[in-house]
Amino acid sequence: MKAPERYYDFQKDISGCGVFGVIDTKRGLIPGQVPIDGMACMHDRGNGLGGGFAAYGIYPEHAEEYALHLMCDHKQALDKAREIIFAYFDVEHDEPIPTRQTPVITDPPTVWRFFATPRADCPQDCRGLPEEDYVVALVMKINTTVAGAYIFSSGKNMGAFKGVGYPEDIAEFFRVDEYSAYLWTAHNRFPTNTPGWWGGAHPFTLLDWSIVHNGEISSYGINRRWLCENDYLCTMMTDTEVVAYELDLLVRKHGLSRRMASKVFAPPFWDEIERMPKSEQDVYSALRMTYGSGMLNGPFAILVGNSKGLWGLNDRIKLRPLLVAEKGDQVFMSSEESAVRKVSPELDRVWMPKAGEPVIVDLEA
């Protein structure tokens, strides 16, 4: 086969999603400009089809209520979703999520937020459910039954802000610079196998979990079917959604530690297990047999935030970059060191985690 003319001049547009996270372990508040600047430094890792942020500690006046963030394509969807939320929750306050006009965001959905608690006299279909299962059921109900409406954030004292655009554009639209949080996760999207749309942008959230991801979950099909068997319904047309729901299932419902859940996502290879001491062989063999359908295949670097801390994980052969850095009480995780140096030039420690080994940073009590 003849090579293309001037093949040596070919320039492939090599890019990939960018992830960024920062936590203050003593719950000091970090201005929203910090993750904005970190993501802006990785602008070329995305293509303008998705950006977003999740922030923890931003609603102290509503800390005991669930902050439900809703996006709707039209007024009918908003009205129907509001009707369901008011039927299942006591709503302390609801309002449009504050936004500002942004030239490159030309056709945004309506975005609304509700601060609410489950009703004692709830409808029959949710009676007897534990509180968090109740909230999950409500999220699934709206996301699967109300055309054009999606709850994209549902935790306490936290919120996600995401959409189609570069992270800087989404930050401008949602006025992210006006928030301060003790933990941030952020994402710059370069979708490959799935569409770029508002609901499909990262972070993906459920309750207080937020997940941002660089890579491709090639096991999405089996992961999704397994989640469906456990009453989680995937509606966002993006592989990262399964990670959010698996986290909730494994850690909250099944009681696995975050470290053990990491070994479900990125388990040791069988030949590694064979060389382990007998006690470890038994543990990891049981994990692989019990949770084989939850294993994440494919290249990935994920950051997970929740009310306990920040957690980073690579796939088991580290096909996507992930860096961790420390400065005083703050810990950063990012696709690139440059993004961290942009917001914190002098660092105490910088390292690259090993493949499949989680880095878990807890908040101090």
From TrEMBL:
Family matches, as Pfam families: GATase_2
According to the UniProt entry, the coiled-coil residues are: none
- Which positions fall inside the Glutamine amidotransferase type-2 domain? 17-364
What domain of life? Bacteria
Q: Which residues form the active site?
A: C17
List the Gene3D superfamilies. Glutamine Phosphoribosylpyrophosphate, subunit 1, domain 1 (3.60.20.10)
The cross-references to InterPro entries, in alphabetical order and at most eight, read: GATase_2_dom, Glu_synth_lsu_1, Ntn_hydrolases_N
Q: What is the designated name of this protein?
A: Glutamate synthase domain-containing protein 1
